[in-house]
């Protein structure tokens, strides 16, 4: 076929040509980036290089899953939530109660906690469909506060202020027993983080994820091109609740303890700060932010136990005033392949 005939064919089928270009764009956006491979290899290497730091590495993995779940609704749908801890804490209590009274298998408890947290997310998602960002902020905050008060008042079920304790878990999949050094716990949490991130990554870089970004950018324009904004928001909010509940379940299973602290407001504030540090809209910001936030907090709490929160606040102010773009210019000095991957991932 000559070049003229090819041009005529393309011109005669503009819809097919547009679909072909869209397909190529989606494939290019969804392919695995170099920096992603580096992150996961570093997480695996930490198991061998830092054998005495398993507990803090486990904490990072749990916080990262929590942050990535929030990024799905904040970074892609543009919904700011101060009550995401409601699903985190609910998942923790579900996993703790299952292990205490019914099933001590960690994977089953994890799945059940995720499903029930998703149901809670679905039931509460309709409360955030109306109003402005401020209305949604206050609504989600109210949901989190109500859940915290319920956990405190229903002492017959949750243990109240004393929390749930005295439960133990079976080996993961009947093969890997939890140890005092936290090695099994870290690998377990890392595996869940990896699977959860891959699932949310697939969602984020699918047509569904692109529609969420359209809603975030301009809800009215998205509605004009027949994007069902309400359904998309409800679906994203529910999926995020599933993985937030799983993060809470991991905390309960690795510590064998659940208290009302899992529903405290500071957890919602912390996870938002994690995303401020790591960036939103590409999921891995939640992982990088969790690493930096946890390590800095741990270091500052040792160096200055009384004033570490002051320095965390100072870091936040610097990020806001100077701007992420200026602070991120160090990436220009990295290898070209990494720089391009980072830019395309955003």
Short characterization:
This protein is 75% helix and 0% strand. With 346 residues, it is mainly α.
Detailed description of the structure:
By secondary structure, this protein is mostly helical. The protein has a single domain, classed as ABC transporter involved in vitamin B12 uptake, BtuC, CATH 1.10.3470. It has 17 helices and no strands. It has helices at 3-12, 14-30, 34-49, 54-76, 85-102, 106-125, 133-153, 155-158, 183-204, 207-217, 219-224, 229-255, 265-278, 284-303, 308-322, 324-327, 336-345. Helix 14 (284-303) crosses helix 15. It is globular, with a radius of gyration of 22 Å. The model is unreliable at 6-11, 330-334 and 336-346 (pLDDT under 50).
Q: What count of domains describes the coordinates?
A: 1
Number of strands: 0
Radius of gyration: 22 Å
Query: Shape from CA axes?
Result: globular
| N- to C-terminal distance | 39 Å
Tally of DSSP helical segments: 17
Which percent band covers the strand fraction? Answer: under 5%
Task: Using the coordinates shown, work out and report the CATH topology.
Answer: ABC transporter involved in vitamin B12 uptake, BtuC
For the record, the CATH architecture stands as Orthogonal Bundle
Helix content: over 70%
Structural class: mainly alpha
Mean pLDDT: 81
Order of SSEs? HHHHHHHHHHHHHHHHH
Residue runs with pLDDT of under 50 for 5 or more positions: 6-11, 330-334, 336-346
CATH class: Mainly Alpha
Main β sheet profile: none
Organism: Neorhizobium phenanthreniclasticum
Pfam families: BPD_transp_2 (PF02653)
Protein name: Branched-chain amino acid ABC transporter permease
Transmembrane segments: 34-50, 56-79, 86-104, 110-129, 141-159, 185-212, 233-252, 272-295, 307-324
């Amino acid at each position: 076929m000559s070049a003229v005939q090819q041009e005529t064919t393309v011109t005669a089928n503009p819809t097919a040509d547009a679909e072909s270009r869209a397909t190529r764009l989606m494939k290019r956006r969804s392919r695995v980036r170099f920096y992603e491979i580096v992150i996961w290899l570093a997480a695996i290497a930490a198991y061998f290089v830092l054998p005495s730091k398993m507990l803090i590495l486990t904490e990072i993995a749990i916080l990262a899953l929590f942050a990535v779940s929030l990024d799905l609704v904040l970074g892609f749908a543009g919904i700011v939530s101060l009550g995401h801890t409601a699903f985190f804490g609910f998942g923790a209590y579900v996993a703790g109660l299952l292990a205490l009274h019914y099933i001590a298998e960690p994977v089953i408890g994890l799945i059940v906690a995720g499903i029930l947290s998703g149901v809670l997310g679905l039931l509460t998602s309709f409360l955030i469909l109306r109003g402005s960002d401020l209305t949604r902020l206050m609504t989600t905050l109210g949901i989190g506060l109500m859940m915290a008060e319920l956990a405190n008042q229903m002492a017959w079920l949750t243990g109240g202020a004393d929390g749930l304790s005295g439960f133990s878990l079976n080996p993961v999949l009947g093969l890997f027993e939890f140890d005092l050094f936290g090695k099994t716990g870290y690998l377990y949490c890392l595996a869940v983080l990896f699977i959860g991130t891959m699932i949310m990554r697939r969602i984020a870089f699918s047509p569904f994820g692109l529609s969420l970004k359209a809603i975030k950018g301009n809800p009215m324009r998205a509605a004009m091109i027949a994007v069902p904004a309400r359904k998309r928001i409800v679906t994203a909010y529910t999926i995020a609740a599933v993985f937030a509940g799983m993060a809470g379940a991991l905390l309960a299973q690795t510590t064998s303890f659940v208290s009302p602290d899992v529903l405290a407001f500071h957890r919602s504030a912390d996870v938002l700060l994690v995303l401020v540090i790591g960036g939103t809209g590409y999921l891995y910001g939640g992982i990088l932010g969790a690493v930096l936030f946890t390590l800095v907090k741990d270091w500052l709490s040792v160096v200055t136990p009384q004033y570490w929160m002051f320095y965390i606040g100072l870091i936040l102010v610097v990020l806001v005033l100077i701007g992420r773009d200026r602070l991120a210019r160090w990436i220009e000095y990295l290898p070209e392949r990494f720089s391009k991957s980072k830019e395309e991932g955003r």
